[in-house]
Write the structure tokens for this entry.
Amino acid sequence: MTILVTGGAGYIGSHTCVELLNSGYDVVVADNYYNSVPAVLDRVEQITGKKLARYECDIRDREGLKKIFSENKIDAVIHFAGLKAVGESTKLPLMYYENNISGSVVLFEEMAAAGCKKIVFSSSATVYGNNPIPYKEDMPTGDVSSPYGRTKHFIEQILGDVYRSDNEWSISLLRYFNPIGAHESGLIGEDPNGIPNNLMPFISRVAIGKLPCLTVFGGDYDTKDGTCIRDYIHVVDLAKAHLCAVDKILGTTGIEAYNIGNGKGYSVLDIINAFEKESGIKLNYVIGDRREGDLPAFYADASKANKELGWTAEYDIDKMCADTWNFQTKNPDGIK
Ligand code: NAD
Ligand code: UFG
């Protein structure tokens, strides 16, 4: 079986390529390297001892996609390619709609043209907006606070319409919670350009001395210690959820959404404490103002994925922090 992985050189995509190759799938990656480098794919090959096919291809490039589908018999697609910076999306909404939504539409059209109607889509817990916690898949979605989040909601809706128009499609919408951590080899991990927006890469850059101080966004929330609560999930657990989803869509038709989280909430201070314990480094941090748009707390009810995909997260926050630190210390300047 051959899987096309869009955005396969990125953070989650690269870990998923490792799991796919280790499970015996053939992998074809399409990435425009906007937020990644080809060397990541060399490292995926180094970890697995297997080769993958790679195309420098933008998903908005119809001819590029036609070439991939004509040169490979693709059985299913895992669609990671997209822009993901929430703050940037509020300043550049059209760039996000064009890249994420227009790109996805071109991809779905070319999949249909090639007769490949099986897809796993990277969605996000952000689609739930202000629902009661824990989030469940049957809750209303779409009340989202950023253009980025809206691209995820709209693409879910588009895929719903695609399925309703043609019941041969098999679609899995994976709503990720907060992926952190890295492959235990330390060869691949999260390597954002510039100053990180997300908590874990910010923490590890402070720990290694590349940034002076972490600001904790808000210490006055109505939570156990006043800081926000999130459902952190090890990126390797998340990658394995894609394997389960691919196995499922290969044998069925339909459209289903699944929460991919640990089902446990940890505060920002919990993460700082776990990181300090695993790295042996005292983190320099201050409690600052709240960040606009942050919800106080959310975490997953992941029981649907546990039951229907046969997937359960295995790793705890100590392992997430240890693997993040291992990647950071082995790659102090990132992957070039
Ligand atoms: P990432 O930026 O590391 O990976 C995305 C990859 O897609 C990059 O390699 C980038 O170069 C590529 N890409 C972007 N636009 C492209 C285009 N038009 N054509 C081809 N390639 C393109 O991000 P990630 O953290 O690995 O996230 C993967 C997916 O998961 C994204 O869709 C993201 O929105 C979603 N997601 C991520 C998180 C998270 O916290 N990391 C949470 C929820 C959902
Ligand atoms: N935080 C800080 N300081 C920082 C960065 C983050 O205190 O420098 C806090 C945030 O306020 C939040 C928590 O750490 O409470 C996690 O923040 P992240 O930015 O790492 O993650 P978010 O929960 O804001 O967002 C993530 C993804 C989004 C996705 C969302 C829901 O980045 O793509 O989860 O899935 F939409």
Q: What stands out?
A: Residues 2-180+232-261+299-313 form a domain with the Rossmann fold fold (CATH 3.40.50.720). The chain is about 40% helix and 15% strand. The mean pLDDT is 97. Residues 71 and 115 are 14 Å apart (CA to CA).
